[in-house]
Design a protein that fits this description.
- InterPro entries: NAD(P)-bd_dom_sf, ODC_Mu_crystall, ODC_N.
- It is an enzyme of class 4 (lyase).
- This protein folds into two domains: 2-108 and 299-314, 2-Layer Sandwich (ornithine cyclodeaminase, domain 1), CATH 3.30.1780; 125-296, NAD(P)-binding Rossmann-like Domain (Rossmann fold), CATH 3.40.50.
- The protein has ten helices and 15 strands.
- The chain has helices at 6-12, 17-31, 107-124, 139-148, 164-175, 187-191, 234-239, 248-253, 272-278, 298-314, and strands at 2-5, 35-36, 41-45, 50-59, 64-73, 87-92, 98-103, 131-135, 156-160, 180-183, 196-199, 218-221, 242-245, 269-271, 290-293.
- The strands form two sheets. The chain has an eight-stranded parallel β-sheet with strand order 10-9-8-11-12-15-13-14. Strands 1, 2, 3, 4, 5, 6 and 7 form a seven-stranded mixed β-sheet that branches.
- It is globular, with a radius of gyration of 19 Å.
Amino acid sequence: MQLYQRDAIERAVGIDREALAAVEAGFAALGRGEVVQPPILSMAIEEANGEVDVKTAHIRGAERFAIKVSPGFFDNPKLGLPSLNGLMMVFSAKTGLVEAVLFDEGYLTMVRTALAGAIAAKALAREDSRRVAVLGAGEQAERQVEALRLVRDIHSVDIWARRREGAEACAQRLRARGLAVEVHETVSGACVRADIIVTTTPAREPLLHARDLPEGVHVTAMGSDSPDKRELDASVLTRADAFVADTRAQSETNGELKAFTGGEVPFKVHELGRVLAEGAMLRLSASTITVCDLTGTGVQDTAIAGFALSRLAAQ
């Protein structure tokens, strides 16, 4: 059994085309019905404002599978500690023996989440998309833009965040990457010229409404990953010409389909893996509006963990 720390993992794995291909292949396998993926195990630790999620999946025919343990303790910054942490345990799919433990401290989750946003945009956003609006200014906001540049020629970024100083700091980092960046006071101002909108917040009430959507925009919602979070107003979902989830079941419990809890969803729900596996073309014209809700799946974790271990073993 091998033990790898975050610094070694970061040197081996980044947001690049090979990692993108690995995660995309995992989604496509899910769409073809080649993945065993149990529901997320989630546990709240309310007295510490914390939660722990456990995700896993087995891709049939793969050499390995991973089990990820992902704690989020959201008062940690007051203690000078990061909010997110975690590790991935990688097992042989033939013998069940532990091959490695990746003490990535949430790094691989960050990578695969950013890549999932790029995969959604690759499948759903206009090919001529150049301008992205980002709601939120944390690490994932910046990483989403980095990943999007693998699949679209992004030139300009518009940022809105609840904390202006956070948005300005994010903008400064993105400008250092050669992008033109504007910070906005309102969500509508950030989105008015967007080709792609990415929501990356821990919001508990909807931030984005149908009135904020330009014609032909693609929206990727990243932040709603638990029952108490929501970023999109129901009007965004009903306005979309095509709605895609990583999995419908998770979107209904943790994601944006919670807006229709207790009622029938009034539109067709596509799943990203099947869209990829079947090569489905959901964007029918330049004016089509698409929405993708990504709650984070175990197959992404198995895909990125297997990819990371192959890179680490090759060093």
